């Protein structure tokens, strides 16, 4: 069932009791007992699957880069800038492919559709914009929020866009309709909506009120978990069984999605005042998080121990946005106006062979240009 059908069925969600999972101490993942933080020493097998090598640094020329995101297939990425622009990149070559202009203020988040034909972005100008990737023009501009829109996401088949705002609401928009009104508005959050993730039938919402809310559209239910601080990032694991949540001035926690039980906790990074991204790697083996000391911290998901740090160098500032490649060990990190590309090995340099065929002669520019 598509998210669109589920939303039409459930015009109003039933509110269930709050699950106070922050004080649940029974850990079901082996090796998660609290311990002194060891020095990170990746094992020989781990080094080959961690993106420890910085291969490229992109100067985005967008002012501050508010977010960096991979496309669904991992071949492209996009950066949201403080200069009101959204840029499409080839992260392997470091080339800009397209520049999207249409927002009236800083762009805060962006996501790509399942077929790479569309982008959706949100901004401090209170709008959500749906873009056609190839033409660079926008096809929809939704203005239903009363404040800055912090986060945005597509559903599985990209027929629906979900947005979260400073106005404390989550709104759901139909991409196939010309209507300017949202299909549904969720008003349960008591503070700014700071994080969103969407599965085939669920919407995960993180808020500044210190709670993570899971809307199950098939059941028509809502589960609420108190996580101990303003939520900075909230994502589903790739198997869909758990939820990874990071909080400002707090640790990163892994919760069982169905019971709300805390399975593991990850600490050591510095997060005192900024909203920093955390994510899982492509294999669900490692947890990655930005930090305010110019590092990315990497922990083992099962054992909870720190295995590596990615140092961005002096003066790099907080590493506030992360994007993990969906299928291999490639990581994008945003800091100030730059994006760094991290790999597990050097990229093979593609050599363009000189072709003397007649077709290439007609394809090339005339010699006087």
Features:
four-stranded antiparallel beta sheet; 3 helices; mainly beta; five-stranded mixed beta sheet; 369 residues; globular; 44% strand; disordered C terminus
Task: Write structural notes for this entry.
It is a single chain. This protein has 369 residues and is mainly beta. It has helices at 3-9, 44-47, 358-363; strands at 14-19, 53-59, 65-70, 77-81, 85-90, 95-101, 107-112, 118-123, 128-132, 138-142, 149-154, 160-165, 170-174, 184-186, 193-198, 202-207, 211-216, 221-226, 231-236, 242-247, 252-256, 262-266, 278-280, 286-290, 295-300, 306-311, 321-324, 330-335, 338-343. The protein is built from three helices and 29 strands. The strands form seven sheets. Strands 1-18-17-16-15 form a five-stranded mixed beta sheet, with no helix packed on it. A four-stranded antiparallel beta sheet has the order 2-29-28-27, with no helix packed on it. A four-stranded antiparallel beta sheet has the order 3-4-5-6, with no helix packed on it. The longest helix has 7 residues, at 3-9. The N and C termini lie far apart (54 Å).
């Amino acid at each position: 069932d598509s998210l669109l059908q589920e939303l039409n069925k459930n015009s109003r969600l039933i509110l269930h009791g709050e699950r106070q999972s922050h004080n649940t101490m029974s850990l079901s993942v082996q090796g998660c007992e609290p311990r002194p933080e060891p020095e990170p020493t990746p094992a020989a097998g781990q080094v080959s699957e961690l993106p420890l090598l910085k291969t490229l640094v992109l100067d985005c020329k967008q002012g501050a880069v508010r977010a960096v995101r991979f496309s669904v297939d991992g071949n492209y990425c996009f950066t949201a800038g403080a200069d009101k622009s959204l840029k499409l990149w080839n992260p392997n070559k470091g080339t800009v492919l397209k520049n999207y202009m249409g927002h009236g203020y800083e762009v805060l988040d962006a996501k790509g559709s399942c077929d790479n034909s569309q982008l959706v972005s949100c901004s401090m100008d209170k709008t959500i914009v749906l873009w056609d990737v190839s033409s660079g023009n926008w096809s929809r501009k939704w203005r239903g929020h009363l404040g800055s829109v912090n986060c945005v996401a597509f559903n599985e088949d990209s027929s629906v866009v979900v947005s979260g705002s400073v106005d404390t609401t989550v709104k759901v928009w139909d991409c196939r309709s010309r209507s300017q009104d949202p299909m549904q508005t969720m008003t349960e959050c008591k503070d700014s909506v700071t994080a969103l993730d969407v599965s085939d039938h669920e919407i995960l919402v993180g808020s500044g009120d210190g709670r993570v809310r899971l809307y199950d559209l098939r059941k028509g239910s809502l589960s609420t978990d108190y996580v101990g601080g303003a939520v900075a990032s909230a994502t589903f694991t790739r198997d869909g069984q758990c939820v990874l949540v990071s909080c400002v001035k707090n640790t990163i926690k892994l919760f069982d999605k169905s019971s709300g039980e805390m399975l593991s906790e990850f600490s050591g990074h510095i997060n005192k005042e900024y909203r920093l991204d955390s994510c899982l790697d492509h294999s669900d083996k490692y947890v990655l998080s930005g930090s305010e000391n110019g590092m990315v911290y990497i922990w083992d998901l099962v054992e909870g121990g720190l295995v590596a740090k990615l140092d961005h160098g002096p003066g790099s500032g907080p590493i506030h946005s992360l994007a993990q490649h969906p299928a291999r060990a490639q990581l994008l990190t945003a800091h100030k106006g730059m994006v760094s590309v991290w790999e597990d090995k050097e990229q093979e340099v593609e050599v363009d062979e000189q072709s003397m065929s007649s077709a290439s002669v007609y394809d090339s520019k005339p010699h006087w240009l």
